[in-house]
Amino acid sequence: MKNPNVNKQRVERPKRILEAASRLSTHYGFDKTTVDEIAKEAGVSKGAIYLVWPGKEELIDALIEFEMKKVVLDLRTRIIDDQTNDSMAALYRHTLLAIQHNPLVSALYTRNGKVLGDFVHRQDPERYTKRLLMSKESVAAMQSAGLLREDHSPEVITYVFSLLALGFLSISSVIPEQNAPPIESTVEAIAAMVESGLTQKGGSRKLIKESALQMLDLMIEQYENRGTNDN
Amino acid sequence: MKNPNVNKQRVERPKRILEAASRLSTHYGFDKTTVDEIAKEAGVSKGAIYLVWPGKEELIDALIEFEMKKVVLDLRTRIIDDQTNDSMAALYRHTLLAIQHNPLVSALYTRNGKVLGDFVHRQDPERYTKRLLMSKESVAAMQSAGLLREDHSPEVITYVFSLLALGFLSISSVIPEQNAPPIESTVEAIAAMVESGLTQKGGSRKLIKESALQMLDLMIEQYENRGTNDN
DNA sequence: ATTTGACCAAAATCGTATAATTGGTCAAAA
DNA sequence: TTTTGACCAATTATACGATTTTGGTCAAAT
Prior knowledge:
The structure is a homodimer.
Chain A: H1 4-28, H2 35-42, H3 46-52, H4 56-81, H5 88-101, H6 103-110, H7 113-122, H8 136-144, H9 154-170, H10 183-198, H11 205-228
Helix pairs in contact in A: 1-2, 1-4, 4-5, 4-11, 5-10, 8-9
Chain A binds a DNA duplex through helix 2 and helix 3.
């Protein structure tokens, strides 16, 4: 406790382990990645992992949360950095790209069995069906704020957002990337479609960015609280 | 040859076999369905099947063509019957519903391994990636005719059409149907989105229907020619 | 001239004994 | 006190022979 380096080392260790697990899992899948390999990759012993989590299952849980948080943080900076275009389209575009940029979350979303393995599926199927896209509630809130059209129910809009993302993320396995147009133009077209088809004209651009960031900060806060808790 | 019933019986038999194969394959998948079972279900002997096709592989090929043709015919009647709404939105809506209505084609589109089995994947992967949705060429033609927006390339629009359909068809495996909004409202929202996001305002409604039917008739003709050929 | 179904070789499946791997533990080292 | 890694039980992979299933054939029946 005297040496702050030791303390820092200790609090950063779970993170290092998760990063190792992330690297290996994206490459070989959850099932094919062993606890031993993760330990080796993280430069710690196997026992050290069991000092943090009671079992591999809980490690995977933590890994998924970790990756989801990374995506949310990535999305946050994408939105903040983009100062030229505070539109609903831009918001959705950044969301798609942020998810696509993260292989594990992408696999989780598309239910890619190769990466997820049987591991994740064995449990109750609902467990990993966490919402990354806007929730029904957020959509409803945005409708009230005059940002999204109100002639579709929040359920339907949320559903369309999801299916659009799913299609975007899975299409590469049907149409090989070499036959596909550049991602940028695709995302651009999707975003434009969402903009003209689902948003309310004349909504405050400032409000869009604000409420999006508010939503994300809430999610980040939730991740942080959960991470602090026992597990 | 004297009795016309015999002749009719003969020409209809391949169809009966395909229908039997269709029934069994949608239920058990290609792999789990045996040639013998198909013969039993169709009320013919196994040899009779080999009188029509040289092997199971060719039977599956024929089955897929058969189902695709069914979808195209279904789509055709949907479009013709819908006299109230000759919009691009309606066209796309009918397409989605027609595909979704056919389990085999739906499985082919979403690459559902349970139904397709290893059988279809063993071959060159391109083989069964036939376009059902509008081709690049059709899209380009519709752009020239002022029906689709020209600020996206034909490739991008085709790609977005595909990914949207893929998302629509696969979402049920991620979000269970009980948690989903009614299909009608979903399709409605998607169609509205396509309409406002990808179509050119002021395009002739008559032209939309006309060119759609023209395209479908061309496809049907192609199926018919192929069916007449040797195999 | 057609159609059938018993028949066959090849492939898939099953049963199982053996070997290798892996999640998890804990006495010992640091 | 904290961390490690040899160790173990249990699960999973492998090998392989026996058994069943299945795609495909063809002499016989219709």
